[in-house]
Specification:
The protein is an alpha+beta fold. It folds into four domains: about 180 residues, Glutaredoxin (3-Layer(aba) Sandwich); about 325 residues, Alpha/alpha barrel (Glycosyltransferase); about 80 residues, no CATH class; about 80 residues, Glutaredoxin (3-Layer(aba) Sandwich). About 45% of the residues lie in helices and about 10% in strands. The strands form nine sheets. The protein has a five-stranded mixed sheet with strand order 1-3-2-4-5, sandwiched between helices. A four-stranded mixed sheet has the order 23-22-24-25, with helices on both faces. α9 runs parallel beside α11, α17 runs parallel beside α19 and α20 packs across α21.
Length: about 750
C-alpha cells in the first residue's frame, strides 16, 4: 500500500548504507510549533534509562516505553501498532522533532491514543537501528537518517517509515500529527493490507541483512587487483583539490576508511603516478580537514561532518568514533612522509579526547552535542568584536587574519540571521602568513597559541553543549587502537597510558562472566553486546600489545575472539552475526558487512583473525578468516565503496604479513632504538612482537620461539611465514631492511 512512501529525510539524509548525515538547513520552527510541555509524569519509564538520549525524553507528554519484553508484550496484548522512534543524544534534528512534536501535548495525545510508543538509542542498540533503517530506506527511496520514525505491527514488522516530520505540513513533508492520525485510520480500516505489506518487506529485509554467501573452494574475484580497483574508484570520486567525498550534494564526512585503503594500496604499487595520486588524496584531505571549520581550532577534535565542500561549516557534534578513525589515518600518513601536519592533527584530536571525553575511571564518553542554548553551533562561533575584547586590538587583528574572521562573518546562524558569526578556520597556511607579515614562523605560532588559549577560556564561560556520558565498548575499542598506535609511532607515552587505562576500564566494568557489555553509564550497564563491540576491543588490545609488549593484552584479545566465535559465528555460512546466539529474537538475525560511519564488525574481525593467527600461529583463526574471504566475496564485490576496511583485510591476507620480532629488555635503550625503527616505518602488513631474552613466553608465539640475541645485544628478526632474514642489532640496519620492504614493488 502506498502510504506516503516518498518521505523526505530530516535530521540526516543519505543513500544506503547509512552514515549519519543531515538534510540541508530548514527554516527555524515557527513560534506556533513551540508548545509548552506538559507537566512531567510522576514516574516516567525513561527516567532510569542508561541512555542520555532516552532520558532527554523522560518528561515528554508522550507515554514512551523502552524497547523490551514488557513494552512489546503490551503492544501484542492491546493489538496496537508500535511507533518506534530512534535517535541519539547529539542529533540536532532529533532535538528539533522532540521540541516540535514530542513536547506538544496535542500531538502526544494522538500518539498515546493510537500507538505503543517506544524510544531507542541507536548507539546502544545498533541491531534494532540497522534493521529498521533498512526498512526506512525502502520506504523513502533510499533516504534515511535520524530521527528515524517507523511504525510496526505488534509482531515488529514495519509498515510505514520516515525520518524527521514537522508538526504541521511544510518543507514538502506531511505534518506529524496528521500523519499519526492517518496511520491510525489505515490501521483500523486496512489492517490486512498493511500487514501483508509489512510481511513482504520483512522478507526483503531478511534477505538483505543476512548477506549472501558465496559457494565454492575459491574466493572468486577477491584479489589484490580488486583491492586496487576499489582504491582507484574511490580516489577518482574524491575532490582532488579539497579532499574528501561529497555526500548528498554538499556534505563531506571524514573518509577515514577510504584513506586507510589508499595508504595500503599505495604501499604496494610500483606505478609512481598512481601512488602519488592515492597519497595526494590522503594528504590533501587531512590538510583541508585540519585547516577547516570541521576542526575545533581552540580545543581540538573534529565535528561529525561539514555541510559544504570546503570543510568550513561543520555539523558541530563531536563523536568519539570520528576522533579515533581520523587519528589512526593521520598517524599512518605521518609514518609515510614524516608529515608534521598529520602529526599535529593527530595529537590535537587525541589531546581533546583526553581533556574533554575521558571519564574518571579511564573510559571515554561518547559525544558532544551540536546544540547549546537550543541552537546549533552557538558554543563554537564568534563575532569579530568578541575576539577584539578578549585579545586586544593588535593580537585580535593577527588572529582574525589567521583564522578567517571577518566583520560580516562567514556563517549565517539560522537562529540569528542578521548577526555576523564566524567559524574559525585557516584560509591560508601559517607559513604564508608569516612570510607576508615578516614574522618568524615560530613567533607567529607562539602568539596564535596564546590567543587560542585566551579565547578557549572565554568560550569556556559559555553554556557547553551536552556531553553524552555513556561509555560504549565499540567506540572505546576504536580509540584504544588509535591511542596505542599514536603513542608508539609519535613516541608519546601519555597516549599509551590512556589506552591502558581505557582497556582496563572496559575489561573491569564492561565484562561479566567472560561476556562483554556494550554500554556503561554511572555504574550501570546495558546487558547486551554486539560483534562490533568484540571486534573493536580486540583490535584495540592487539594495538595495545604492540605498543607495550605486555602479554596480558594479547591474551585478552585471543580470549575475546574465542568468545565471539562461540556466540556470534555463523556455522552454516561464514562470518559473524551482529547479535549473539542468546540475544533476544528480532525479525532477522543480521550479518553486517558494510562499513558506514564505523567499520563493520565483520571487517574488523577479519583483520583480527588474520593478525592473531600470525601472532599465535593459531590455525583455527586462519581457517575462519579464509572462510570469510570465500563466503563473503560476492557481497564485497557488489559493494566496493562500502567495504574499505574489509578490503584492508583482503590486502593483509593476500600481500602477506611482515613479521617483526625484537628480543631485548624493554627498558634497554638499545631495545627501544630497535622498536623506534620498527614503529616509524609504514608497512601496513607489519606485525610487531617483542620479549625479553631467555624469559618463558606466556604467548607461546612461533614468532618469538627460538629467537636468540646476537652477542648478548637486543636483536630484531624480520620474517615472513616465520622464516627470517639475517637478524639485526643495529637500528640503522633494521631501518634499511624495513625501507626495502616498504619500497613499492
Amino acid at each position: 500500500m502506498a502510504l506516503w512512501l516518498i518521505v523526505l529525510a530530516g535530521c540526516t539524509a543519505r543513500p544506503a548504507p547509512p552514515p549519519d548525515t543531515k538534510a540541508p538547513a530548514m527554516p527555524r520552527p515557527a513560534d506556533s510549533d513551540r508548545a509548552t510541555p506538559a507537566p512531567p509524569a510522576a514516574a516516567h519509564r525513561l527516567a532510569q534509562s542508561t541512555s542520555p538520549y532516552l532520558q532527554q525524553h523522560a518528561h515528554n507528554p508522550v507515554e514512551w516505553h523502552e524497547w523490551g519484553d514488557e513494552s512489546l508484550a503490551l503492544a501484542r496484548r492491546e493489538n496496537r501498532p508500535i511507533f518506534l522512534s530512534i535517535g541519539y543524544s547529539a542529533c540536532h534534528w532529533c532535538h528539533v522533532m522532540a521540541h516540535e512534536s514530542f513536547e506538544n501535548p496535542e500531538i502526544a495525545a494522538v500518539m498515546n491514543r493510537l500507538f505503543i510508543n517506544i524510544k531507542v538509542d541507536r548507539e546502544e542498540r545498533p541491531d534494532i537501528d540497522d534493521i529498521y533503517m533498512q526498512a526506512t530506506l525502502a520506504y523513502t527511496n533510499g533516504q534515511g537518517g535520524w530521527p528515524m520514525s517507523v511504525w510496526l505491527t505488534p509482531d515488529l514488522k514495519p509498515f510505514a517509515a520516515g525520518t524527521y516530520f514537522p508538526p504541521t505540513a511544510r518543507y514538502g513533508r506531511p505534518g506529524f500529527g496528521e500523519l499519526c492520525e492517518r496511520i491510525g485510520q489505515l490501521w483500523s480500516t486496512h489492517r490486512d493490507a498493511l500487514e501483508r505489506d509489512a510481511a513482504t518487506l520483512t522478507e526483503h529485509l531478511r534477505a538483505a541483512l543476512a548477506a549472501p554467501i558465496s559457494t565454492g573452494d575459491a574466493a572468486p574475484g577477491i584479489t589484490l587487483e580488486l583491492v586496487d580497483r576499489a582504491a582507484d574508484i574511490l580516489a577518482d570520486a574524491f575532490d582532488a583539490r579539497r579532499g574528501g567525498l561529497l555526500s548528498g550534494g554538499t556534505n563531506k564526512f571524514p573518509p577515514s576508511m577510504a584513506m586507510e585503503l589508499f595508504l595500503r594500496s599505495a604501499h604496494r604499487t610500483a606505478d609512481a603516478a598512481r601512488r602519488e595520486k592515492l597519497l595526494q588524496r590522503v594528504f590533501v584531505t587531512l590538510e583541508h580537514m585540519a585547516a577547516g571549520g570541521i576542526n575545533d581550532h581552540l580545543a581540538g577534535g573534529i565535528a561529525r561532518y561539514s555541510t559544504d565542500p570546503d570543510w568550513l561549516v561543520p555539523h558541530f557534534e563531536k563523536m568519539l568514533y570520528d576522533q579515533a578513525l581520523v587519528t589512526r589515518v593521520a598517524v599512518d600518513a605521518h609514518r609515510v612522509r614524516r608529515d608534521a601536519g598529520a602529526d599535529a592533527f593527530a595529537r590535537a584530536i587525541l589531546d581533546y579526547c583526553i581533556e574533554d571525553l575521558r571519564a574518571p575511571g579511564g573510559g571515554f564518553y561518547s559525544s558532544r552535542d551540536a546544540d547549546s542554548e537550543g541552537r546549533e553551533g552557538a558554543y563554537y562561533v564568534w563575532r569579530q568584536d568578541e575576539i577584539g575584547r578578549a585579545l586586544g586590538a593588535a593580537e585580535a587583528e593577527l588572529f582574525c587574519t589567521a583564522y578567517g574572521v571577518r566583520p560580516e562573518g562567514n556563517w549565517v546562524d539560522p537562529h540569528e540571521p542578521g548577526a555576523p558569526k564566524n567559524i574559525l578556520h585557516l584560509p591560508i597556511p601559517l607559513a604564508t602568513l608569516a612570510d607576508t607579515r615578516r614574522i618568524p614562523l615560530d613567533e607567529l605560532q607562539r602568539r596564535l597559541a596564546e590567543s587560542r588559549k585566551r579565547l578557549l577560556a572565554v568560550r569556556g564561560e559559555r553554556p557547553a553543549p551536552h556531553r553524552d556520558e555513556k561509555i560504549l565498548c565499540e567506540w572505546n575499542g576504536l580509540l584504544i587502537a588509535a591511542l596505542a598506535r599514536a603513542g608508539r609511532v609519535l613516541e608519546e607515552p601519555r597516549y599509551v597510558a590512556a589506552a591502558v587505562d581505557a582497556a582496563g576500564f572496559l575489561l573491569r566494568e564492561q565484562r561479566r562472566d567472560g561476556r562483554l557489555l556494550r554500554s556503561w553509564r554511572d555504574g550501570r550497564t546495558l546487558g547486551v553486546a554486539f560483534i562490533a563491540d568484540y571486534a573493536n576491543l580486540v583490535d584495540g588490545l592487539i594495538e595495545l600489545y604492540e605498543a607495550t609488549w605486555e602479554p596480558r593484552w594479547l591474551l585478552e584479545a585471543r580470549a575475546l575472539t574465542r568468545t565471539a566465535i562461540e556466540h556470534y559465528w555463523d556455522d552454516a555460512g561464514a562470518g559473524f552475526f551482529t547479535t549473539a546466539d542468546d540475544h533476544e529474537s528480532l525479525i532477522v538475525r543480521a550479518r553486517d558487512l558494510r562499513d558506514s560511519a564505523t567499520p563493520s564488525g565483520n571487517s574488523v574481525m577479519l583483520m583480527n583473525l588474520l593478525r592473531l593467527a600470525v601472532m599465535f600461529g593459531e590455525r583455527d583463526f586462519a581457517d575462519r578468516a579464509e572462510r570469510m574471504l570465500r563466503a563473503l566475496s560476492d557481497e564485497v564485490r557488489g559493494a566496493l565503496g562500502a567495504s574499505e576496511r574489509f578490503l584492508c583485510g583482503v590486502d593483509f591476507s593476500l600481500a602477506g604479513a611482515v613479521e617483526i620480532a625484537i628480543i631485548g629488555d624493554p627498558a634497554d635503550p638499545r631495545t627501544l632504538a630497535l622498536r623506534r625503527a620498527a614503529d616509524s616505518t609504514h608497512i601496513p602488513g607489519a606485525v610487531v612482537m617483542g620479549a625479553p631474552p631467555g624469559a618463558p613466553d606466556p604467548l607461546s608465539s612461533p614468532l618469538l620461539a627460538e629467537r636468540p640475541q646476537l652477542d648478548g645485544a637486543p636483536t630484531a628478526y624480520v620474517c615472513r611465514n616465520y622464516v627470517c632474514d639475517r637478524p639485526e642489532t643495529s637500528p640503522d640496519a633494521l631501518l634499511r631492511k624495513l625501507a626495502i620492504i616498504a619500497r613499492p614493488r
